[in-house]
Amino acid sequence: MWLLDVRVLLDREKNIQEVDAEIKVLKQLDDEGASYAILSHRWGTEVDYGEMTGLAVMEARKRSEVTKRDGYQKIISSCEQAEKDGYSWLWIDTCCINKDSSAELSEAINTMYRWYRNAQRCYVYLSDVDESTFPTEQDFSKFGKSNGWPVWFSRGWTLQELIAPKEVEFFNKNWVSIGTKQELTSTLEEITRIPSKVLRDGQVLSTEPWRRPCIAQVMLWAADRTTTQVEDRAYSLLGLFDVNMLMLYGEGSKAFQRLQLEIIRVSSDHSIFPWNPKGQLARRGGVLADDPSCFRGCHDIERVYRFGDTLGAYMRQV
Prior knowledge:
By secondary structure, this protein is an alpha/beta fold. The chain has 13 helices and 7 strands.
């Protein structure tokens, strides 16, 4: 994975016109061995991999335009916070993936859950929160387009970014810390419908089948979330189900059907089938759902375990 060298980037920022263009702000490291922080945020006017690596050699006018973007200032603030916390490396999805390479993009999407899980700390930047405290009640006057909560909670990709890391810290738009995942567990459970045991330990999703939430429950958490690309409604869930897929942007809702087939291939959990449980008429054909919203009514579905399921899982451990 590409990681930002926090110290090098902050030094470059002090006087970018005099920086040696040969100095690299991004370095490839192994997520299993590196100690790094990671950012979770809502995209706006961002800075990509090519702009971040080529900033020092840009024409002055273009460089000025890039550094004035909200996305660039977000990168700098994230690095400053990482340095305060003692981290030398930082990962941000906007500039740490070379999206011109389809192979690199596919690898990143398939391993992103692991990258968030292996991060020492995840910074969640809530750009629409002005107050110095975390919002604990729905406020439709401020967050009317995202069900009364900060828009970060309505996005598809941020579901795994909340669950995977052990240490999560929330910041308001001025980069003031407003709480951690551990401190805010009860409020986060109310907002997201994710059980507190999962919020406290995302590893529960990779434990024995009878201990983890059923497939329908996990789909429910994603039911009301949105993504810019239709395909990302499926791709953003890969890590939560521990499956891998090829990225085929342009396939539309077929991506979610492929996701379900991959899940069925590795799981005997039949709760993936009783979607749309209220008996509403669905589109013709097939037993697979069109998208996660089909699981919106699956609050009470639980998996019934057969003795063979638990015995088989036990025997694999001994």
